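Example 281, ligand adenosine monophosphate.
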Amino acid sequence: MQTVQDVAALRAVVRGWRSQGYTVGFVPTMGNLHAGHQSLIKLARARTDRVVASIFVNPTQFGPHEDFERYPRTLIQDQAGLAEQGCDLLFAPEVATIYPYGAAQTVSVHVPQITETLEGAHRPGHFDGVATVVCKLFNLLQPDLAVFGQKDCQQLKVIERMVRDLSLPVKILAAPTLRAEDGLALSSRNQYLSKEERELAPLVYVTLQQMRDLVSKGHAWPAVEQAATSKLAKAGFVPDYAVIRRADDLGVPARDQRDGLIGLVAARLGSTRLIDNLIFD
Ligand code: AMP
């Protein structure tokens, strides 16, 4: 697997593939790769002739008091893992390559409405940073297909809307959430957890499952949300939200809606913020 940092090198490789008629799949990441990321590579592998991963800790999607500086950067390890999964090319650009005028002066992509709630409400500007960097990466690479995790469900919806609204010629594929044996969704941020916090962390997924079960037994979702929030708070989390939304657009469902729902939780445990979701099938 080749690693390239600059745009000319990236384009040269992709141009070579295109001239041979190969399709190109893309998996954007912030690195510190785990089995969840690997599963995205595998999905892309199965659908396209060549697979590109990117590793870029994107400054514009972090708030001023978030973990940009301490976000784990493990390039050597990540390269080995990607090669093992059959990734063909790693794009690992510098910040100046992605933001030639500086991150503060970038042209910005704003996806309205869906970005105003949930993560967007708790992390102002986050989805502008995500949409902007993904749009830039799509322009640089021009992939046929890009894979995103259901774990970051709202991010997936934001990208889908951006692609449709800007007529970007990329197919977006959603990948299921990979979990540890105890149910905790794999995340690069899990390593911030202390031993005690790590033992408590699976409660997020347990709570989502209980939310689903209560709704399926006919409980009204507002009461289920309240019970979930207080359960997490009692256990020592600081919940940002534990809510039930429409799975298709993350809007607030009708009181008696039973189908097409999703549970979403974001909660802090010590200094670590965990997010997860579960579609209520
Ligand atoms: P990140 O490096 O955290 O920005 O994630 C890169 C991609 O991997 C995003 O599309 C995430 O949704 C996806 N991802 C992160 N964690 C998981 C997981 N546990 N299972 C599946 N996909 C994941």
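Summary: Residues 188-275 form a domain with the Pantoate--beta-alanine Ligase; Chain: A,domain 2 fold (CATH 3.30.1300.10).
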